[in-house]
Structure formats: structure tokens, C-alpha cells
Amino acid sequence: MQVLVRDNNVDQALRVLKKKMQREGLFREMRERRAYEKPSERRVREKAQAIARQRKAARKKMQREGLLVSARGKSAR
Fold this sequence. Notes:
Strand content: under 5%
Number of helices: 3
Largest sheet: none
């Protein structure tokens, strides 16, 4: 991964690098590799992640079809 530093602006280059790393999933991978994960725990985690993905996809589909009002669309009065 490579980031260009323009006009000696290291802070901006760091922000760009962090954004790229976030997009690639490196932070998530480092967190997962921090400690050993038993195969049974891995299966449980992956199954939970798959269920969460399915629920999110179903929620988005219902929002697109107009059957569900998005939480962000509601006004707090």
C-alpha cells in the first residue's frame, strides 16, 4: 500500500493511509489475529456475521421497496 505525501503534509497522508487500511479491512484482520481463536469459536462468529449480513440485506431490501421506514429518515420531534 502506498500513499503520496504532498507539500510535506504528513497529517493528510496519514488520514488517507488510515482510510485505505479501513477499506481493505486491515484493522479488522489485526484485531482478529491478536489472539488465537478456537475453530469452534470461529464457526460461531462467522455464523453470527452471516446472519447479521442477511438481516442487513433484508432490511435494505424492505427499505427500497418502501415497506420499512429507515431510522435515519425519521425526524426527532
